[in-house]
Amino acid sequence: MKSVLVIGAGKFGHHLAEYMCKMGNDVMLVDKEERLINEYSDDVTTAEIGDYTIKSNLQALGVDDYDYVFVCVGDFQDSLVITDYLKELGAPYIIGKASSLIHEKFLLKSGADKVIYPERDDAYRMAVEFSKSSIFDFFKLSKDTGIYEIEAPDSWVGKSLSKVNVRKNHEITVIAYKSNDRITAISSPDYVFSSNEHILVMGDRKNVYKIAK
After folding, report:
1. What backbone torsions phi and psi does residue 210 show, to the nearest 5 degrees?
2. DSSP secondary structure string, 34-88?
3. Residues near 102 by Cβ (< 8 Å), separated by ≥ 6?
4. Which of 40, 168, 177, 192 has a Cα at 20 to 30 A from 22?
5. Looking at per-residue confidence, does 210 or 29 come out higher?
6. CA distance 209 to 148
7. CA distance 175 to 184
């Protein structure tokens, strides 16, 4: 379980906080809008109202005690001010939400350890999904790498993971298989590929595309 602070209860922030809480994390959601906190307080562990562009309000939250702090504030300047204060106050890992490339650049300069850009990332994910019919799902990890749900190539079916030697021959890693919507991690090299299951692989996009049907 992680301790998570989400600053900003807009569309993205409150969904993030809700999902993080459902996944077993201890989540505090904060926003200056009383209406939003009242609406979403039951979806998270704790929720507070306050203006967190004021440094003392952030300090009162004990931001250095959280594993992750997400800055999901829509206002460009406010998000930079909050990020800068979080860095000063010792927040260990700050993730900023950007609405543009220039916003991403300034968040990083203000002290964000990582920046997410949901509109760009969702657009890219959708482009991958609908351009390659053999890719059933996709999660982006970096510019060129991700986790892909695919069918095992015909030449792999009936063979073990060690026999195919995927990592050496194809420079990707098979991490799990999916059957009847249930995902199971693959921990043994004796796993045998099946035509009835999808596999989840991690690697560079170009290497995954080479093996995808």
Report:
1. -65, -30
2. HHHHHHHGGGSSEEEE--TTSHHHHHHTTGGG-SEEEE---SHHHHHHHHHHHHH
3. none
4. 177
5. 29
6. 10
7. 9
d(Cα 187, Cα 197) in Å, to the nearest integer? 16
Mutual orientation of helices 101-110 and 76-88 as an angle, nearest 10°? Answer: 20
Compute CA distances 22 → 12, 25, 134, 170, whole Å: 15, 7, 31, 36
Give the tens place of pLDDT for each residue, 57-109.
999 999 999 999 999 998 999 999 999 999 999 999 999 999 888 999 999 99
Report residue 133 as tokens: 């019919």
What are residue 147's DSSP bridge partners? 139, 202
Beta bridge partners of 31: 49
Q: For the chain, how long is the longest CA-to-CA vector?
A: 62
Q: Beta-carbon neighbour count of residue 161 at 10 Å? A: 18
Return d(Cα 6, Cα 69) in angstroms, integer.
Answer: 6
Q: What order do you get walking across the sheet with 94-97 strand by strand?
A: 46-49, 26-31, 3-7, 68-71, 94-97, 114-116
Q: How many CB atoms lie within 10 A of CB 81?
A: 19
Beta-bridged to residue 138, according to DSSP, are 148
Structure tokens at 141: 């990890």
Pairing verdict, β 26-31 and 68-71: unpaired
Name the residue with tokens 């609406």. 39
Q: pTM to 2 decimals?
A: 0.65
